[in-house]
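Dig into my protein:

:::
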Amino acid sequence: MKRLSKSRLITKCLTQGLFAATILLAFCVATLATAENVTNFCLKTSRDVLKSCQGAANSDLSLAIAKCDNLATAAERSVCTAQAPDDNKDALLDCKDEFDVRQTACEQLGPAPYSPVIDPANFVSQIDNPYFPLTPGTTFVYEGQTSQGLEHDEFFITKKTRVILGVTCVEVRDTVRLNGKLAEDTLDWFAQDIDGNVWYFGENTHELEGGLITTIDGTFLSGIEGAKPGIVMEAHPGIGDFYRQEFDLGNAEDFAEVAGLNASVTVPFGTFNKCLRTHETTPLEPDLLEDKFYCRGVGNVLAVDRVTGERVELIQIK
């Protein structure tokens, strides 16, 4: 065997060491680059919405000040311009609260963009999920005493359908009366996939006061301006499941989490056991924490405001 001189041996060792170090450095750089490219799209989207909300709040401040400037007297202008920054501060705090709800949701939903694949071939013509059956011609009647008065809600499954994203959806008309006066009139569209999940494809909602429409906030249609359907009821709910029920950023963003599968519920319509209980939240109303109870063969029988304790209960199915 031919021996290397001491100097050549040292050179070779240094060269090999340098080569190994170069490979290690390249690996580290590639690893860091890959890590940087793994974007948390859920959180990024939430931050984008936060910026949009803050921008809208500041825009409203400018408009409020403009309205103040147009008031007739100096005293009115002074009071108005003093109030405008406080209202802006409250609005910015609301934006932060909304972001906090979205951020918490992202921790459970994961980093991927929300992009459900909707194939019309994977949907069936009827909705018979045992926790959320929708039989055309049926009306669920709910009542409850709330801070706004006596709420009377009729959830009528019509015989009408609407095609959304190629899927034939069942149309439901949901009307809410407060102290006998129509306060909300909504059309909802649902469809069930072959696995038994019930999807929510959109709604056309009107809130009213004195017979006049005050807002259509919450109205969305999947496929329009980035709106996407969500799951309103899973085929096989499991405790801890967390999912989107609707998706239209800044307009319709309800979340649900399965909290229990063995609840006992008593409402005017009857007593039920082994019912599904969900926690429902939305960043658009950060203070709203609602539990809903769904019982096999019936559907939703009770909604409870976890903050106030107010209950809206099933009183009749007709």
